Model the fold of this input.
Amino acid sequence: MQKAFDLGGQIKLGHFLFDENEKAELYRLKYLPQEKMAGGLADQVQMQLWGNHAWKRIQFSWKINGSAQKGDSSLESKEKNKIEEAGITWQPIPELRWYAGKKVLSWGKGHGWTPLAFLDPHRDPLDPDMPHTGLIFLGTEYEREFPPSPDPLQALTFTSLIFPVQEKVNEGFGHLNNWNMAGKLSLLFWNTELDWVVLKGKSRPEHYGFDFSRKVNSFLEIYGDFWTSPLYEKVFLDQSGELWKTEYTAFGSLQGLRYERWGMCCTVEYYRNKAGFNPEEMSTYYNYLQTVVDAYPKEGGTEARKRIMILSNAYYQHPNPMQEYAYTQILKRAPLGVQHLTCSIAGVWNIQDRSYALCPEIRYNSKPNLNIGLKNTFWQGNPHTEFGEQIKHWSVEISLTYSFESSFSATPSYSAEPYQYQKEPHLEESQPEPPPHEEPYLDESQPETPPYEEPYLDESEPETPPYEESLPEEPDQGSTGTLR
Done:
């Protein structure tokens, strides 16, 4: 019986410098002339704690995130504390695990985008480490590895789960008062990973997906994600601000390539999402934003402003809401021979409206648990484009991150077991020949000792047979004793 406790955490201090895009329609909507942002400076403190406690076949894991930010949107601090993950895992046999609780699943093979992550929030390719809250569910996972054989199947994993969508329980997932289910089948064929994913329920339309990942060689990987939804529901606004909903068969795909060699990692992805908005729909949305902002001082402008802010957050303001994108990241470790230094640059290009975002970053690990970072993000584009309508032109972040981790294991001690274990070697050595007498005898009976070698060499003449017969027996006995 053994108990194990693991505790880890991270504290991040960030200072931001940014330039506001006061011409953006979304900026004008959120920050009226009397409600402008607090200049171009902001501070943030973020702390994460995670733990893992194991006892017998039961394991409890949790992760908590807390942050406080000041100066980005207002002079007042905004505090956010949430439980990202918390759940219990029971493993009755090595191949089977049951889980109940809250967890981020992160399905899919993509690095910039994860279109097969049906159960997780949208992911920003330029900020992949942004904390996300998991889904509360009950699930099981069966995993089996097969020994080497002519059969191409090397491993199999099957995951299934059910989860409710109720008030205060996964309420942001979709329609309330419904139960949903999801599953994933993973196979490893000839060093190629294959996954099939399905989501069924009434809170969201059905989704079906497939992904693959293959290592062509030790430094090149190709991967792809594909999905479809037969009855996808798209909600959008028209020129007058009326809300419309249409159903159609939506599909999406992601193709990617990852190259790692000589301390360099290069990732290229092409993402197509037919569930997103086309350029005409986004232009209509921005035109209506402009109408609402211009009409705010007039009668009825306040209600229209509140309404469009709610609709924007619900349907439009998530990362990359349009249909066609490209992503590239180049990362270099220890450039110019500088150890503990990592440089990278990442970019997202909206192929439809020609806007883009760039994010160069430098990180230096002065100590194993201390990281210093400098990150710069640019958003460029014409008016009424995705990145041209961001509320900032550029942003610079200087961060200091401290990480810690500790583990503790406790094994109950029983006085009888250690005592018997110490007796066993003593009993094996308690033979009739006592070891104290053997050790000096073995040490002195080496062939290099001069008392035995010299008389044998001096008197070994053919004329004296008595000495030849008697003297060789003693070195032979000594050598035999040495081998024993």
Remarks:
- The longest strand covers residues 243-261.
- The mean pLDDT is 82.
- The two ends are 42 Å apart (CA to CA).
